[in-house]
Amino acid sequence: MTHDRYVLRYAAGSDVGRRRQVNEDSLYASSSLLAVADGIGGQPHGEVASATAVDVLRELDVDLRRIDLTGVDLAATLAGVVKSIDARLTEVASQEPTTEGMGTTLTVLMFDGVEFAAAHVGDSRGYLLREGGLRRLTRDHTLVQALVEDGRVAAEDADSHPRRSLLMKALQTTGSSDPDIWTFKAKPGDRYLLCSDGLSGPVSEATLRDVLAAIREPADVIPELIRLANEGGGPDNITCVVADVVAAPGAAPRPADG
């Protein structure tokens, strides 16, 4: 069975925000990989941890460009990459003891032209804008999210909870991060947003939806999202990747219905 193939039109950006001195976020964006990593604040060398995660993804992307992704098990590939990041973090910490305990979130999409695989650990987020509606793709691995699911904290109070940033899962030097991994089909017209909590914290999902729906080009969406996060106080580093699924160049037009 043949499938329509698509490509990604994407843009990405990062900003230190208004209250931090160091940007501990890292990002990666290419035709086959999109990722946001947020170094854990309050621990040493968060920027090293997030950059290390992205370094491993960059190495993967070099390999991906050499092969035909048709038939590749994307989910298994991403699971292996996360294990490689765990191992790399452990290796870095063994070489530089001051980095012991460092950690990072990671939200990543891998794309083969037909299907996506996603891997997620931490509280960075992935969103899908489809036909004007915004849906969160990821689950925050935080104490507060667990309390919401247990019915001990109201969902509407989660974003203002004093312990909302306390992570239950992250990529760390201890390894065994246990990410969420899943796959789904690409659909033309879909728009994806990956972001650190420096965006999703101060900017409501309703506002995210409005901006993603209103601005046509991904390259124009990024500065507007960063502006809104800083306008909301810029309490953390702000990092976002926006990608649209579009028909591959030269693809035959789909037959019109009746």
UniProtKB/TrEMBL annotation:
<protein>
    <submittedName>
        <fullName>Protein phosphatase 2C domain-containing protein</fullName>
    </submittedName>
</protein>
<dbReference type="InterPro" id="IPR001932">
    <property type="entry name" value="PPM-type_phosphatase-like_dom"/>
</dbReference>
<feature type="domain" description="PPM-type phosphatase">
    <location>
        <begin position="9"/>
        <end position="245"/>
    </location>
</feature>
<dbReference type="InterPro" id="IPR036457">
    <property type="entry name" value="PPM-type-like_dom_sf"/>
</dbReference>
<dbReference type="InterPro" id="IPR015655">
    <property type="entry name" value="PP2C"/>
</dbReference>
<dbReference type="Pfam" id="PF13672">
    <property type="entry name" value="PP2C_2"/>
</dbReference>
<dbReference type="GO" id="GO:0004722">
    <property type="term" value="F:protein serine/threonine phosphatase activity"/>
</dbReference>
